[in-house]
Amino acid sequence: MSLFSFTLIFAMAALSICLVLIGIRFALGPSLPDRITCFDLFVANIIGIVAIYTELTGNKDFIDVAIILSLFGFLGSISFAYYLLKSSR
Amino acid sequence: MKTFIVHFLIAFVGSYLYFKYGDPFVPYNAIWAVLVASFIMFLLWLTSPTYHRSYFHKLPRAISLFVFFLKELVVANFRVAYDILTPNYHMNPAVLAVPLTVTTDLEITLLATMITLTPGSLMIDVSADRRFIYMHTLYVKDNDVESAKQEVKDGFETRILKLTR
Amino acid sequence: MFENINFLLIREIISSILIIIGVIFMLIAAIGLLRFPDFYIRMSAITKGSTLGLGLILTGMGTYFNEADMLLKVLLIIGFTFLTTPVAAHVIGRTAVRNKIPFWGPTDLEEFKDYLRKEHSTHRDHERDNKHL
Is C10 within 8 Å of chain A by CB? Predict the structure, then answer.
């Protein structure tokens, strides 16, 4: 195992720790907008993991997953926020 | 803006055709693709005073706005990172009502996007008569609200005004 | 002159450095998400840190592959992220203000009082709007 792939695996491990921390905030979060923010960060972290995995395996097809995910994550957080905006009164 | 989009499309298609059908004497990789596209863009920019006079001045201003925005993004990120990693809070948050000089939809959208993307400041709403924006900011030095507002107006707003007027 | 340089090694080094910096920004953002005291501070400070981290990671990946179509996809993702993150942050922030999420204690709310009063007293308008539907 070269130093390069070791670095990438280390980066993926660090991003997984990020996911755990965000999960703790997701469980704690005192209000619903906190959880929507957590969802946003979740999607950003997973795009990062997909990008690093693409580089690790050298298979260029995986990056399309990241494109789709970046669009759908935005749609998800917007629709949650809009639902909250309309339903809370 | 329209001229920029047309020029960008011409440069994109031109560099694509150059690498596909032309006889490229440079290797095909990312750096050379960007260089060829920006070279075509530069040639188009040199010809622009004959049909769109103000575009000749506006492209350098747009680039300077973009560079200033990137610098602001990195500097503010490091400030927030310092605040996270040290045990005490150095923040002094406030909600400011910044008076607007910009008027049109495009300018307000640009200003709001740039304010929201720099860490430590979040735009909440535009007032109903479009004369103020309400932004939540983290670092107000010793409760001097006016100078914090002036900083926003000097930083982004004057550059956007130079670009669009 | 350029024959003896191992370009693959240089690309790997640059890409590793960019990815490590991006991951550190994301880690700082996640720690800050746990540490900061109030929703608005978390929102304004954190989401953009992760955006910058994501941009650095994707740039590192584009540097490693060094192909024009890969660069195009990377620029597409970075463009989407930088376009959509402020919109999402703006909508979520305004939702939080309408839902009366409290501000942190030391926040200076002097100029925001009018807006808050107006915002919290117009409950009836919204119900009236919904009756048309």
Answer: no
